Amino acid sequence: MNAELLVLALCTGFGLGCLALALRALLAAVRLWARGLRVTGIVTARAAADRRPGGLVLFRDHLGRDLLLDPGMCGPLCGLPPVGRSVPVVYARDRPVVARLWTMRHLLAPSFGWFLSSALVCGTGVVVAL
Fold this sequence. Notes:
The chain has 130 residues and is α+β, with helices and mostly antiparallel strands. It is built from two helices and five strands; from the N terminus they run αβββββα. A five-stranded antiparallel β-sheet has the order 3-2-1-4-5, with helices on one face. β2 (56-60) and β3 form a beta hairpin.
């Protein structure tokens, strides 16, 4: 089998897999936008031993439980305000543990990353095949 054809097949398969994950993340964001419960959370500081940037978001779900949302290391890049400020949080009623920040950047960041990966891998496969 030709090596370029093998690379093209691998890149195409991996690119289509990344594209499927991008669509899945986009559908999850649309479901949260359409049916999610929106509450207000407060940005709190991380523990002193935790060196990751940004803060944590403390919010209360529909049952009155206090939950902690970790927006990840991209929290400041996705619109997380400074410590002590309030931020909107959205979650599905049956899964409040899987909450997201109610900002366009935070909801669409995973799907954009998967789509960018898909385009990069498929483009690499096409360039190698030519």
